[in-house]
Amino acid sequence: MTETQFTPRVFSGIQPSGNLHLGNYLGALKRFVDMQGPEFQTVYCMVDLHAITTWQDPKDLAHSTRELCAGFIAAGIDPEHSILFNQSQVPEHAQLAWVFNCVARMGWMQRMTQWKDKAGKNQQNASLGLFAYPSLMAADILIYHATHVPVGDDQKQHLELTRDIAIKFNNDFGVDFFPITEPVIEGTATRVMSLRDGSKKMSKSDTSDMSRINMTDDADAIAKKIRKAKTDPDALPSEIDGLEDRPEARNLVNIYAALNDQTAEQVLADVGGKQFGDFKPMLAELAVEKLSPISSEMARLMGEEAEIDQILARGAERARTIASPILQKTYEIVGMVGAGKS
Ligand code: TYM
Fold first, then answer.
1. Taking Cα atoms as reference points, which of 69, 67, 85 lies closest to residue 140?
2. Would residue 172 count as lying in a domain?
3. What CATH number did the domain enclosing 231 receive?
4. Domain membership of residue 222 as a residue range
5. Which of 72, 151, 158 for a ligand 1 pocket mutation test, highest count of atoms within 8 Å of Cβ?
6. Contacting residues for 158 by C-beta, under 8 A, at least 6 apart
7. What is the pLDDT of residues 35-52, one digit of tens each?
8. Is residue 187 lining ligand 1, measured as CB closer than 6 Å?
9. Is this model's pTM higher than 0.90 or not?
10. Residue 4 within any structural domain of the chain
11. Which of 19, 90, 154, 313 is the most exposed, having the fewest neighbouring CB atoms within 10 Å of its CB?
12. 173 and 248: one domain?
């Protein structure tokens, strides 16, 4: 097999299944913005087909999709530069996912920890879509021949599976067609933890709203949540080793570092020796300074629904110009009659 050269292309997605929170912002969205530039073509998606693997009220889904689009733009994604769209407007995702359902093995899917966590003891009652979810995710990425995928730490296993699917497809059909995608899991906020429990990931499904900062929270709510965040009684250390076995302290330092584009070491060099009573107001001030402009811009954009819909439609059109030939070529490789004609 010859080495194929793939265009450097970034793909990533976020589910429109509720509030966008600080973990999504620091672990994903802010990184998406950082990757916009001459080095990569950037493709970003509101993955509504993924969202319906668990029940979504149709009105809420439409609202969350538009709000997420507003969040992307408010955070700094330029829809002229990046391709920004919702997944269901590009049918090639679901079409390639079917092919991948026939490549991926049951055993691979059964090993997915997110499947086990989300379906829990109730696997018999979970949707088939929830089980097949990682195969659709692989299709999202590979329908663009994406080479780099920025995500938070919780998506690592899904990206390994994406590589396994690409390798098996290439081997089965004797081609070098799908790239072996690089996960980009970098920075100090790859796993932002709950503000109430440093051993749990910050998540939109946590029943306690105090556990997370939502991108729509106002300044008072942000400050209150940080003031009430769980901590320990000790002062902050000056060195990173001093954060070991102090998950809540580590989380707040990491959040500060990520918001301020610093490393945790740099933050500790400044704040080492301070008590939380002093550090929390610093963090609250920084969080409000960085997040408030985003939430007010989101609110403004949400008043321009028609404009958001137009951006998504235009993004989908641009996405299809990449996705459609890749799907046709895939069908041709697989042996589907008529492939490549449309
Ligand atoms: P989702 O919608 O759960 O989360 C979107 C992104 O936010 C990251 N993230 C976090 N990062 C740091 N700390 C946290 N507490 C935290 N919580 C969430 C996630 O890692 C993710 O990067 N399966 C994906 C969506 C998806 C996708 C894709 C991603 C579908 N297709 C293709 C990349 C490529 C998901 O459910 O993310």
1. 85
2. yes
3. 1.10.240.10
4. 209-300
5. 151
6. 112, 114, 134, 137, 138
7. 999 999 999 999 999 999
8. no
9. yes
10. no
11. 313
12. no
Cα-based torsion angle of the residue sequence 317, 320, 322, 328 in order, rounded to the nearest 10 degrees: -150
CA angle 112, 113, 118 (to 5 degrees): 105
Encoded tokens for 310: 């137009």
Question: Does residue 321 share a domain with residue 244?
Answer: no
113 in the same domain as 151 = yes
pLDDT in tens, 187-210: 999 999 999 999 999 999 999 999
Is 201 an active-site residue?
yes
Tokens of 208: 């306690």
Look up residue 230 and give its two tokens: 């769980």
Nearest residue to 26 (alpha-carbon basis) of 154, 167, 192, 144 = 192
Long-range contacts for 217-223 (Cβ within 8 Å, ≥24 apart)? 217/291, 217/295, 218/292, 218/295, 219/288, 219/292, 222/284, 222/287, 222/288, 222/291, 222/292, 223/284, 223/287, 223/288
The answer on whether 340 is annotated among ligand-binding residues is: no
pLDDT for 185 beyond 50: yes
- The count of domains in the chain is 2
Whether residues 138 and 54 share a domain: the answer is yes
Which residue in the list 156, 168, 204, 274 is annotated as catalytic?
Answer: 204
Does any ligand 1 atom lie closer than 6 A to the CB of residue 87?
Answer: no
Indicate the range of 114-123, 161-170, 187-196, 279-288 predicted with least confidence: 114-123
Per-residue pLDDT tens digits for 71-84: 999 999 999 999 99
Q: 170 and 231, same structural domain?
A: no
Tokens of 184: 């980009």
Which atom of ligand 1 lies at the shortest distance from residue 137's CA?
31
* One domain for residues 125 and 227: no
Within this chain, do residues 106 and 220 fall inside the same structural domain, yes or no?
no
Q: Quote the CA–CA distance of 138 and 142 in Å, as a whole number.
A: 6
